[in-house]
């Protein structure tokens, strides 16, 4: 009947299904574009957050008011005192003395090198590492040169001890030019 232009319930139902299918298709496309937009937004937010964390971490590391290494040393000293409370007699005295010496040594090192922040301490550590690597490499080179010199000295001593024997051997050798010329004439 639909072909003749007369509407039927089944035809109306099929038209409704096509409309809903088209609506579902457009909704899926919208959801797909929204997912892409949200994904880009999340990527941008995570990138911005990482940059912000780096900037804030650098501010904290280089700000002596927020985190002073001297205060950290004092806190560490207090923790060690708490630990030594449970020790008795000689052990307690030795631990407290050792911890105090360690605290004074660390504090004087920080003062001598004008280190107040974690960033400055890390920079100093990196500098010391690079210097240590360079000096270690140089020491290995010098050690190898010393071994070479020691070998040469040993060889010279052997040469010196055997020199007279070799010279005497050279004089008595029958294959010298003079000995050969005397034999052949």
TrEMBL record:
Name of the molecule in the record: Nickase
Species the sequence originates in: Streptococcus pneumoniae
